[in-house]
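I am still learning, so would you mind making up any protein sequence you like and the tokens describing how it folds?
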Amino acid sequence: MMYDPTGHLLLTPIDPEAPARVRRLSELGFGDRPDPDFDRFADHLAAVTGAPYSMVNFIDENRQYFAGLHTPSGAHKGCDLTAAAASSGAVSRFMARDHGYCPHVVVRRKALVLEDVCDYPRFAGNPVVDEIGIRSYLGAPLIDRTGIALGTICVVDTEPRPWGRAGLETIKALAAELVGQIHRREDRGI
């Protein structure tokens, strides 16, 4: 468990790599707008895992940005919904850094499998459980050639899911696939 200097439990881990990540995301041109390639990748991720929601998520010091997003309705395609839209029930491409599980994956630099978030007191208290109804999570870090964890790919469900070892291996392989695509884009200067 991580604690702040006053001894209080931190639900979101301290992220000393955030400034370097922000610089790297800026170099790559990622982190502040939807990307059709990442949306397609999120669609692929949802199809492979059977999850209703999937994301390509880049994280800065204060927020998470879903550059790739798949939802059951697909209503987000081609638009950049704001946090205000999310409060009205719509899916947003932005989320506070202290919401969700991807910041843990980035800081840990390891995949995370939560078959039922309610089984883990540290994760059950996350705002996405009550506000959005998230019950299961599967995510892996996107670690690029510079060694920076740019963000994550993840899938979530509103029901517990038995992801198991197969889910873990799948999400790790898909993260490596996306990192390869990012490197090819960088090499081509896109």
In short: The first strand starts at residue 53 and ends at 59. Residues 45 and 174 are 8 Å apart (CA to CA). The longest helix spans residues 164-188.
